[in-house]
Amino acid sequence: MKPLKVRLNNMPHCPNLPTKRIRKCLIGNCYTEEIQELTGLGIECIPLNKSIFLDEEISCHADILAFNNGNGCLFVNLGSIGERYIHKIDKEIIFIEKIKSPYPNDVALNIAYIGDSLVCNKNYANAEILTFAAENHLKIIHSNQGYAKCNLCIVSDNAVITEDSGLAYLLKNCQFDVLKIEPGFVHLSEQHYGFIGGASAKFSETELYFSGAISKHPDYNRIVDFLNKYGVKPIFNPNRVLRDFGGIIAL
To answer: Cα–Cα distance between 201 and 88 in angstroms, integer?
Structure first.
């Protein structure tokens, strides 16, 4: 395996905070409605295959299956990218073999990259990514909540939305602007509800995609006010149920 590239005197670019509209992304191949909507926004969607080693409800989630380090390396669950799509990815691809259910064995790549910080459970996050972060002077914020990326809707380099009380408390103490919203209004499966991070994706500096009717969320007005503070507008289909689709991995 090649050593990870390291930029000296220059921070890697956070892929979750694009400065212009992204052109490509990774997304779970079973989320056809989201793929159609994002394609309609001019974004090429590269599908990720479902993993048989993960619980069915998260088996196709991009935030479980892949991580972009913002510096030319893409970490991907082995078998998640079909051979015919690899040529579309202009990055070094590092395949990870041990992503499987149950939790916390499935959170190695579920890392929230926000500005110059990585939020994750350091005990289970991929070791190469943690080494890369340390070498590039990125802050590593340890969270007991391993599903950090699932639980954080990233608005700006210091602003997030979450349902998770622990993450809200942690990031407020790290000087983030945090909007804590009510849990339970994002669909995942018949058994469990999902999270706002997995139901959203920032695809340009001023546009934040939601995978359904965020307008029906009881905290919608608070969410809109929070987004307005950062010059961000929500983009969503009001005729679909807001659901956790695992977000996207911007390329």
So the answer is: 21
DSSP 6: -
Where are the extended beta strands (E) located within the chain?
A: 24-28, 44-48, 66-68, 73-77, 92-96, 112-114, 117-120, 139-142, 153-156, 159-162, 177-180, 200-202, 207-210, 233-235, 249-250
Compute and round to an integer the Cα radius of gyration of the chain.
17
Task: Tell how strand 233-235 and strand 249-250 pair up.
Answer: unpaired
Structure tokens that stand for 82 in this block: 């079909």
Tokens 């050593």, residue located: 3
Q: In what order do the strands lie in the sheet with 44-48?
A: 44-48, 24-28, 249-250
| Of residues 98, 102, 103, 95, the one with CA closest to residue 121 | 103
Is 149 exposed, middle or buried (CB count within 10 Å of its CB: 0-12, 13-18, 19+)?
buried
Query: For residue 107, what are the CA distances in angstroms to 51, 56, 120?
Result: 14, 15, 8
pLDDT digits (tens, 9 = 90+) for 20-62: 999 999 999 999 999 999 999 999 999 999 999 999 999 999 9
Evaluate if pTM is beyond 0.90: yes
CA distance 147 to 57: 14
Other beta carbons less than 10 A from residue 189's beta carbon: 13
Q: Which of 151, 138, 150, 188 is nearest to 65 (CA)?
A: 150
Tokens for 181? 């919203």
